[in-house]
Amino acid sequence: MMVSTKGRYALTVMVDLARNEGGGYVSLSDIAEKEHLSMKYLESIISILNKGGMLMSLRGKNGGYKLARDPKDYNISEILLLTEGTLAPVNCIMQEGVQCEKAATCSTLPLWAGLDKAIEGYLSAITLEDIINGNRKKMLGDYCESCEPSETAE
Amino acid sequence: MMVSTKGRYALTVMVDLARNEGGGYVSLSDIAEKEHLSMKYLESIISILNKGGMLMSLRGKNGGYKLARDPKDYNISEILLLTEGTLAPVNCIMQEGVQCEKAATCSTLPLWAGLDKAIEGYLSAITLEDIINGNRKKMLGDYCESCEPSETAE
DNA sequence: ACAAATCCTACTCTGTTAGTAGGAATATGT
DNA sequence: ACATATTCCTACTAACAGAGTAGGATTTGT
């Protein structure tokens, strides 16, 4: 498993806030209660999102959080990258530039690099808006049984 | 990270054995030495591969392991699935049939399911033969800088 | 002043990862 | 027959990451 509860809950929070677009600030306790998640734990997660510039926050009574941008301007990759630190499927691919010393001769490296790109490519193509709109076709593609057949699959 | 050293080393072993196709049995110590990996640790990993029917083994002097099939008949997904147990990127997608009780109302589930399929799709399309042939085009696709542009990218 | 909220630091419990250790069973060459 | 090289099998351990908990300081609306 590559995405922990941290990233998953972060996405859940973002989706919740996206659904509230146009409304005011939403408090942590509201979200925690709605999603049946630990408020204290969510606090530490939302703090990462906030420091990463994903949210606007307001302290004090009636305070809370809201999205800093439009839902369509968040892709899922950036949300998960921020909270998880990395989405790399293996240790030997951590950051751009940093690589294993055996890289030059490693015959499996292209596989891992390709997998990394496949994951990154998938997640960066999907936005928060896609999720709140339930865009199954985009998310599930040819695997979606409730979608009509796509033209690319012929 | 989704693939641990277990799966990574397992793949390395399989690639090593694939390169030896047609030769006899290769001993664990040979592989461990060649790859600079702990022999004892490799032992526990190769045992999984063997029990999973991926290998043929021979005990005693001059014994060792070899592939049970042709390199082109192994896809990477099955090797990693066997050793890692699962390749699911999140906990809420574990096995076919088993699913989270919130599945029916969860708006992020299609995303995770789609990601899972993207990973599975990528890994099952690549074979051991692709790796030993260094088929960068198949592994890296449009991200491969040393490959000529593909027709699908236009 | 008070209550409701965000912010901040530190701690804990648990499971997984990445091995290590020791020996039993089995086949081969001499 | 015997030493040796190998696979097989069970058990153990140290370190780290994941998933929270705990307690309070700070800010703001009423």
Give the helices and strands, then pairings.
The structure is a homodimer of 154-residue chains.
Chain A: H1 5-19, H2 28-35, H3 39-51, E1 55-58, E2 64-67, H4 76-84, H5 109-124, H6 128-132, H7 136-140
Antiparallel strand pairs in A: 1-2
Helix pairs in contact in A: 1-3, 1-4, 2-3
The first copy, chain A, binds a DNA duplex (30 and 30 nucleotides) through helix 3.
Your description of this structure?
Two copies of one chain form a homodimer. Chain A is mostly helical. Helices cover 46% and strands 5% of the residues of chain A. Chain A has seven helices and two strands; from the N terminus they run αααββαααα. Chain A has a two-stranded antiparallel ribbon. In chain A, α1 (5-19) packs across α3 and α1 (5-19) crosses α4. The radius of gyration of chain A is 18 Å and the shape is globular. Chain A starts with a helix and ends in a 14-residue tail after the last helix. The model of chain A has no long low-confidence stretch (mean pLDDT 92). Chain A binds chain B through residues 1-3, 5, 8, 11-12, 15, 76, 86, 88-92, 107-108, 110-115, 117-119, 122-123, 126, 131-132, 134, 136, 139-141, 143-144, and chain B through 1-3, 5, 8, 11-12, 15, 76, 86, 88-92, 107-108, 110-115, 117-119, 122-123, 126, 131-132, 134, 136, 139-141, 143-144.
What are the defining features of this structure?
homodimer, 154 residues, mainly alpha, two-stranded antiparallel ribbon, 7 helices, 2 strands, DNA-binding
